Amino acid sequence: MIRSFIMKTITLFLMIISFSLVAQQKKFWTFPDLENKIGKHFPIENYKDQDGKNFSPNALKGKMTLINFWSTTCEPCIKELPYLNKLKESLGNKANFIAITYDNKEKVDKFISTQEFNFQHITNSSEELKSYFSLLRNSMTFIIDKNGNIKEITGTVDETKLDTIVKILSE
Prior knowledge:
Blueprint: H1 2-25, E1 64-69, H2 75-91, E2 95-100, H3 105-112, E3 120-122, H4 126-132, E4 140-144, E5 150-154, H5 162-169
Parallel strand pairs: 1-2, 2-3
Antiparallel strand pairs: 1-4, 4-5
Helix pairs in contact: 2-5
């Protein structure tokens, strides 16, 4: 009985240490229902490029990538645009910058004709987004590592997150 208690206590202690180590590696708080996506491949192959062809499963390999999920009618999305553009400007070609939306191409083209948003745009992605997210929160940003796996997930990008995102994307 005492031995069982000691084993349970040690197991609990090790689990707490394990969770705290994982939490320390992450830079941002992540939505609880998205935690299971961290460390997993982002399915870019489910999305279509500007020519209507699916991306290769390896399209995100070799370079860090920032993927922003947004909409032309989302106020937080519009407010974060200057920060997203600043990130791209400061990192240039050191990382990929992709924006994914369910809005159609015409609506996005009209929007970016009046608002600067210098990312590669993937539009008309309603079905892909529905199949990937149980609940899509705009705005939301994924940071993808050089192997195409999700490293970080955060909500709206603002001034307080810029330095951290630059450091992660510069790895």
